[in-house]
Amino acid sequence: MPNPKRRHSAQRGAKRRTHYKADTETWSIDKTTGESHLRHHAHWVENKMYYRGKVLVDNAPATPGEVNP
Hints:
By secondary structure, this protein is α+β, with helices and mostly antiparallel strands.
């Protein structure tokens, strides 16, 4: 069986693989909020940014006498 005479670079293989992509975007449903969102992306629900079911950013207005962490 024939073998290549020289090693191919990693860049050469990477250039070939750039054309292998997913055809459609994959959507998921957040288990905490029940909202649909793109996979591996943070999403906003009611002025809160969620990622993997956890709150990353809370932009909800604070009530008087309450301190945002």
